[in-house]
Amino acid sequence: YVGSTKHVIAPDKFQTAAQMPATLTSWVADLSNLTDGTAMFKGCTGLTTFVGDLSSLETADEMFYDCELDAESLEILSENLPTVTSGNIDIGNYVNASDEVIATIHDKGWTVTTNGRPI
User: Fold this and answer.
1) Cα 2 from Cα 55, distance rounded (Å)
2) What's the 3-state SS for the chain?
3) Across the strands, what pairs with 61?
4) Global pTM?
5) In which order are the strands placed within the sheet that holds 117-118?
C-alpha cells in the first residue's frame, strides 16, 4: 500500500468501504470485491481522479457525493460498473460527465444522482 491523505495507489483488493479522508485527490486501486460503496468518497471535494474496477458493486448511495471527478474518471466508472436490476450511484458534481457516460450508467440499471439530485 502506497498512500497518503491525498493519493491512494493500492495493489490489494478493497472489500469494505470506509470513509476516505476529505483531502483525497486521487484513487487508483482495485475495488473489484467491493459490493457496498455507500458514502465511500463523500466529502472528498478534491477527488478528481478515480481508477478502480467496480464490477461487484451493488450499492453506491452518496459514493462520490461532493466529488468532481474528471471526464476520464467518469468514463472509467461507467465502463466498470456492473449491470444491476436496480441501484443508485451518486457521481457527485457531474460537470465533467458526458451524455454518453450518463446513458451508459443508466443502461446498466443504475439510477444516477448528482449530489443527491437525480439526473
Assistant:
1) 23
2) CEECCCEEEEEEECCCCCCCCCCCCEEEEECCCCCECCCCCCCCCCCCEEECCCCCCCEECCCCCCCCCCHHHHHHHHHHCCCCCCEEEECCCHHHCCHHHHHHHHHCCEEEEECCEEC
3) none
4) 0.85
5) 87-90, 110-114, 117-118
- Percentage of residues of the chain with pLDDT beyond 70: 84
Are the CB atoms for 63 and 85 separated by under 8 Å? no
Rounded to an integer, the average pLDDT of 26-31 is 86
Which of 75, 83, 92 has its CA nearest to residue 57? 83
Q: CA-based diameter of the chain, in Å?
A: 36
Angstrom distance (rounded) from CA 19 to CA 100: 29
Task: Say how many residues make up the chain.
Answer: 119
The neighbour count for residue 83, using CB atoms within 10 Å, is: 9
Alpha carbons 41 and 26: distance in angstroms, whole number:
11
